[in-house]
Write a structure and sequence with these properties.
six-stranded mixed beta sheet, 27% helix, alpha/beta, 7 helices, Metallo-beta-lactamase, Chain A
């Protein structure tokens, strides 16, 4: 599986395409917030003959869901996320108004993912890991065969997700990181919701927030 990253919107959010060898793909956290960013995403999919199969949200904060409606409307695919972030998703219009951000409200999810689920994209298996703390329903997608994690806003290079937002909790987040991510081998790569990729081994030693 190949990972294609785009950085979108006012929050420099990372949107990912997870592309299998047969060109089936998952769209993760589409942050595209205007026509230009929507075109960047859709043109890449069209140019590379990709076949979107599912929309995944690691969590439902506004910067990660701005393009949900666009993706579902264009590709007629289902939205999958964790049930515990449903109220965060439904707060999207109010949060967008607070930030004065144009927002076409996200459709409701039709698939709820939970700890231990295995999601198949083409021939690739992704394990769902429940990692609350940044938001109540944060999840990570782990490809054990290729040793990488789509981590949302759980763990960053030298940092962690904010816990001062509604539903955030530092102790819960720290436990998620220590029990679900730091237990993985050191050479697993984290692809975060903002910023650069990092390694589990590096963060275990150097992350100043959770060691």
């Amino acid at each position: 599986m190949y990972i294609q990253k785009f950085t979108f919107n006012y929050f420099s959010e990372n949107t990912y395409l997870l592309i299998d060898d047969n060109l089936e793909c998952a769209i993760v956290d589409p942050g595209c917030c205007n026509k230009e960013e929507e075109t960047i995403l859709s043109n890449y999919i069209t140019t590379n003959n990709l076949k979107p199969k599912i929309l995944l949200n690691t969590h439902a904060h506004i910067d990660h869901i701005l393009g949900n409606a666009f993706v579902v409307d264009l590709y007629k695919i289902e939205l999958a996320m964790h049930n515990d972030d449903l109220y965060v998703l439904n707060a999207g219009p109010r949060i967008a108004e607070q930030y004065n951000i144009p927002y076409n409200p996200s459709p409701e999810p039709s698939v709820f993912l939970k700890e231990g689920d295995i999601l198949s994209i083409g021939s690739t298996a992704l394990e769902i890991v429940f990692t609350p703390g940044h938001s109540p329903g944060s999840i990570c997608f782990i490809n054990h065969a290729q040793k990488w994690i789509i981590g949302g806003d759980v763990l960053f290079e030298g940092s962690i997700g904010r816990t001062d937002l509604p539903g955030g909790n530092f102790d819960v987040l720290a436990n998620s990181i220590r029990s679900k991510l730091y237990t993985l081998p050191d050479d697993y790569t984290v692809h975060p919701g903002h910023g650069n990729e990092t390694k589990i081994g590096f963060e275990k030693i150097n992350n100043p927030f959770v060691k």
